[in-house]
Write a structure and sequence with these properties.
Rossmann fold; 434 Repressor (Amino-terminal Domain); 3 domains; 43% helix; 6-stranded parallel beta sheet; alpha/beta; homodimer; 6-stranded mixed beta sheet; DNA-binding
DNA sequence: CTGAAAGCGCTTACAG
DNA sequence: CTGAAAGCGCTTACAG
């Protein structure tokens, strides 16, 4: 049904060899201007387009990057996705996209990437087993974890310096003389939630100030419920720090529904700076993850691995942005 | 640097021909159980994986679908993306993902898909020029517009029956005895906004009731601004119908910021039923687009075109869901 | 600057 | 059930 026009047909019509047609479509190859024009004309007329698959087979370069993503729920990752595809496109890569439902990427999804010979894999918001990392290493295909980190995994990782960020937030909260301090975690098995908790709680531990830890799961609904429950138990915190913005937004809405004044009675702080956080109705104070920078670093690590082996861990800083939910 | 293990190497080690190795990895091909086991073992040991590129070259099937998406801002499309990739994966397709910044998909993006010989293209939340549609038709590659429609374009289209939906909403509003009725449009050059406006406005036109049209652009910010402006001019509508949920949410927040009681003073209705609309703090009444059904239809149309030519337009119905922003 | 030829890693008639 | 061989559409030394 579908007939692919090949270089041979163009060659015949243009009265050149197939090699010459190929050269016309290979940047940098030497072809006389006259020949080039003729070939281009015929190609246009025949609707010819070089077959990337055949080309990849011989050049061993596919220009494809596998991108796996979880948690399509969190708007943060949509921004991430948009930036990744744009930057990757600008560098001439295509994106093979996989949406995964598990916290850990499955063998099946990785096989998929391998079959297509992707030149690199980016995993956002999910983890890999060390088995898979090893397998990938054997196949010499570089992997970068985006916004996740595991010191036992021998692969690249790019994330925010969560510990330091949470520490800064704690410092900020502390200078506001808060006593009743609440941290709502994200999914507790994620490095992001663990690190943010560590940075936040440790600061106060050193000062002998207790922090109430509530186990969330990075969803709005859970944070809403937890906060509501808190208020119903007559516990009105001075500040709630949510492990991400969605969490903080859930807490914020629960506070509002209970008619707690923000920031007067309770302050709320998030993490990510998703678009919604700056909506007039929320105006959430939060930690800005520098997505662009993180994406750039991720791509840089991947490209670096095309020349040399080994893996690197990159932590970017980001910054606190003060809006209306903190004093 | 990267060395691909080929079927030849497996064949040598397993003491069979390369053809046999190939057969082991071709479902339905006849191989003796004994041979199969031996080959599988060696393959495992060598970390062998059939090369999808080489396979595609000869079978003329790539199992790749090109998915182009705009407006990564609207959460509706994230849900769409998640469902598409899952359903496509379940059918054995890979997704080549492109994020586009223009309302109209560019030639460049399409070329990209063509080079990789995708078996079908899905365009969500964006349009195509008729030029490109023609080119695609010449290349026999089926296209389906998702949530967009243009009667002049000779390609498949799947969308909600927006006219009827908006008509139903109008009917609902009407039985509540509203007089001051506002419609906030989306991007005015989109079929979705146009159709929703048509269905809504025509109903009232027939009754001689005027509808105030405000030109939005499918963003929260714009809707917030327009609504705020309205209230500041002392015009408090009985109902605001936003062309999508994000628009309605912007209007809703503006109303709240002006301390207008919802739904008592002003009712608000959206379209899409994104996750946020059911957040406790919003509880937006809206029209549910049946995404799953729409995605299924889209894939069905694409697969249909592998057997027969021609194009179809599918309209699904969806339903109104009453929450707290309407009486 | 250009052509003939080898080869990338597969599938699939064809023959046995 | 299995192997030898042709061929998918390209790139790229090699030779001229």
């Amino acid at each position: 049904m579908k007939r692919i026009v090949s270089a041979i047909e163009v060659a015949r019509l243009a009265n050149v060899s197939q090699s010459t047609v190929s050269r016309v479509f290979t940047p940098g190859a030497s072809v006389s201007e006259k020949t080039r024009q003729r070939v281009l004309e015929v190609a246009e007329q025949l609707n010819y387009q070089p077959n990337a698959l055949a080309r990849s087979l011989i050049t061993k370069r596919t220009n494809m990057i596998g991108l796996a993503m979880k948690d399509i729920q969190n708007p943060f990752y949509h921004e991430v996705l948009g930036i990744f595809t744009n930057k990757l496109k600008a560098k001439g890569y295509s994106v093979l996209f996989v949406y995964t439902e598990n916290e850990e990427i499955q063998q099946e999804e990785i096989n998929h990437f391998l079959e297509y010979n992707v030149e690199g894999i980016i995993i956002t918001d999910a983890m890999l087993s060390s088995n898979i990392v090893t397998k990938l290493k054997n196949n010499h295909i570089p992997v970068t974890l985006f916004n996740r980190y595991d010191k036992n995994l021998e692969c690249n990782s790019v994330s925010c310096d969560n510990i330091n960020a949470a520490n800064e937030i704690a410092k900020y909260v502390d200078h506001l003389y808060c006593e009743k301090i609440v941290f709502i975690t994200g999914k507790i098995n994620t490095s992001t939630s663990q690190e943010r908790q560590e940075g936040f709680v440790n600061y106060f531990k050193n000062k002998g100030i207790p922090v109430e830890i509530l186990e969330g799961d990075y969803t709005y609904e859970r944070a809403f419920f937890l906060t509501k429950e808190l208020i119903e138990k007559d516990y009105v915190p001075d500040v709630i720090f949510g492990a991400n913005d969605i969490t903080a937004l859930g807490a914020l809405d629960a506070l509002k529904s209970k008619e707690i004044k923000v920031p007067e009675q309770t302050m709320v702080i998030g993490f990510d700076d998703i678009k919604m956080s700056s909506w007039p109705n929320y105006n959430l104070s939060t930690w800005v993850q520098p997505i662009e920078e993180m994406v750039d670093e991720t791509i840089r690590l991947l490209e670096r691995n095309q020349r040399e082996t080994g893996h690197k861990t990159v932590k970017v800083q980001g910054k606190f942005i003060h809006r209306q939910t903190t004093k």
